[in-house]
Amino acid sequence: MKKAKKCVICNIRKGRRFCIKENDFICSRCCGLIRDTQLCPSDCPYISSLAEKKEVGELPLYKVLMTTQKGSRSILVAREKENGNLQFISALVDEWKMGLKDCFGKHDVSKKEFNKLVARMPQYADAELNECREIIKRGILVAEAIGLKIPKEFRVFKYILGDLDKVEVTGSLYRCFECGKGDLPDDIVEQIKEVTRHDVAAGVCGTEKETMIYFVCDKCKREKEEEVGEVEEVK
User: Where are the alpha helices (DSSP H) in 98-151?
Assistant: First the structure.
């Protein structure tokens, strides 16, 4: 009898379920944590029996933090457990090119250890959970549109964010670089996707050789033109 190998996600428990998305075997616990009607293929034999513990995602919020720098957002969501410790997820979203690109988290960590982690990242600021979830959901859509694989760690810790199925993402896939809200034309969106795929294939994303592209919405463009016009009049 062939011995079951370890789960490819946690690398701890035995992988007894074949995961279509991972194309390998995973354990029942990881299957329960990552199983999602949006991220998993419809022909998965386990998708129809979603039995995740929804109460886990409803623990009281401890901190919701997000970096303020444009372009690349680091989002940190922590919830307080009954034992006084925390569970948290940290997601990195490239809003202008790659979408959701990295993730890590902990299922059980002391507040002291968590606060030390936050202290090392002074650029974090308090944020609204709904805004963070929308940015992450859009990041997922961007990554999928580019053809990038969603990080395994995200599927393990995404339950901490709550139900992403209820998060509605509207408008263009990419948003205005200036205001972060305005929609961009379809041809611009396609141009960004093409450049991103090229940079990913060349392995230059995150390096000095990466193609830097910025597009603004019509509203911000008009406001910029008006500002330039006023300056010229003053001169």
Answer: 111-119, 129-146
Per-residue tokens: 48: 């129809």
Residue 192 DSSP SS3: helix
CA of residue 24 relative to chain centroid, distance: 23
For tokens 């393990």, the residue is 156
Tokens read off for 163: 């139900």
Length of the chain: 235
Report the Cα 159 to chain-centroid distance in Å: 13
For residue 126, what are the contacts with CB-CB under 8 A and spacing of at least 6? 63, 64, 65
CA torsion angle for 16, 19, 140, 42 (degrees, to 10)?
A: -130
Q: Is 167 helix (H, G, I), strand (E, B) or coil?
A: coil
Q: Is 206 left (phi over 0), alpha (psi -120 to 50) or beta?
A: left
What is the reported pLDDT for 6? 87
pTM of the model: 0.73
Q: Are 91 and 80 in contact (CB under 8 A)?
A: no
Angstrom distance (rounded) from CA 136 to CA 92: 8
Contact 124, 65 (CB under 8 A): yes
Q: How far apart are CA 34 and CA 37, in angstroms?
A: 10
With 60 as the cut, is the pLDDT of residue 234 above it? Answer: no
Dihedral Cα 21, 22, 27, 30, nearest 10 deg: -70
**DSSP sequence for 208-232:** TTS-------HHHHHHHHHHHHHHH
Give residue 163's pLDDT.
Answer: 86
What distance in Å separates the CA atoms of residue 128 and residue 132, rounded to the nearest whole number?
6
